[in-house]
Amino acid sequence: MSEREPWWGLLHLRPLDASSNPLENGAAGAYAVVLALASNADGYREAVEVTMTSLGLSVVEIDRTTKLLPEDEEGEVADLRAALSERHPVQYRTFDNYMNDDA
């Protein structure tokens, strides 16, 4: 197995169950920047899906999955990177909620 490195992506999330929606104010969904230690993009997807499922959220889509580069480490991303560890291999902070589906 390859060494795990920081990866990041923009996740589109929805509640797994509307009756126990973990998002604020019953939001229809959310977007979040999520970092994870992974060996590749598939490992990243697996790690974030397990974590989000444990929160009661489903990963609808992951955009821009890539290894974290030094030039990416600003603001919230830098804080998330600092918190990554083998004990805490997935980090997230802010969920940007939306209330209505336009679909």
What would you note in describing this structure?
Strands 1, 2, 3, 4 and 5 form a five-stranded antiparallel sheet that branches. Helices cover 22% and strands 37% of the residues. The protein has one domain. With 103 residues, it is of the alpha+beta class. It has helices at residues 41-54, 75-83, and strands spanning 5-15, 29-38, 57-67, 90-92, 96-98. The model has no long low-confidence stretch (mean pLDDT 93). It is globular and about 40 Å long.
- Unreliable spans: none
How many discrete structural domains? Answer: 1
Report the β-strand fraction as a percent range.
35-45%
> Which of globular, elongated, flat, extended, rod-shaped describes the shape?
globular
Largest beta-sheet characterization: 5 strands, antiparallel
How many E strands? 5
Percent in helix: 10-25%
- Structure annotation, total helices: 2
Termini separation comes to 40 Å
N-to-C series of helices and strands? EEHEHEE
Query: Please, what is the average pLDDT?
Result: 93
The chain-level structural class is alpha+beta
Spatial extent as radius of gyration: 14 Å
